[in-house]
Amino acid sequence: MSQEKMLEDIIREVLKSMSQAPGAAAPAQTAQAVATKGLKPDQDYPLSAKRPELIKTPTGKTLSDITLEKVLSGDVVPKDVSIAPETLRMQAEIADGVGRTQFANNLRRAAELTAIPDARILEIYNALRPYRSTKQELLAIAEEMETKYNAKINAAFVIEAAEVYERRNRLRAE
Questions:
Q1: Number of domains in the chain
Q2: Which of these, 117, 115, 166, 158, lies nearest to 140 by C-alpha position?
Q3: pLDDT at residue 40, as a whole number
Q4: Which pTM does this prediction carry?
Q5: Does residue 3 belong to any structural domain of this protein?
Q6: Peptide bond into 46 cis (omega under 30)
Q7: Confidence of residue 38 (pLDDT cuts 50, 70, 90)
Q8: Which conformational region is residue 98 in: left (phi greater than 0), alpha (psi within -120 to 50 degrees), or beta?
Q9: Range of the domain at 136
């Protein structure tokens, strides 16, 4: 079996199990959460066009604060144009509200990842490649993600990957 095929099989298995990941709300519960926040998927999507007042950058700027003039003057910095976890969570609620549960779960995982520095995400990505880590190293990464960054859904993903790699003999020898 080629490495690409093996990796595809592992990813499919992990993704299949992630549909029951902790923290993923059932569609009926999520639809209620959307209604509670006042979001109506059929009326509020896309948020940037229909509810721009809800969107803030991680630095607290609104969409109307981001202008070419402010970029050129240096009043808008790169962190001002990155997405905030709250925006990703709102988009997840809207996706759930229209039955796009898998996409909603992806957005929730992305929201968690915004707390992790880019360099660390790249290290984790490399550690998740077959034969790169021991099971203990992957479990330590999961622990770090859960405790240091409160990335519980992603931590569950890493734990599942460690278990799949163990079953398929894809861990680095200790």
A1: 2
A2: 158
A3: 82
A4: 0.72
A5: no
A6: yes
A7: low
A8: alpha
A9: 116-174
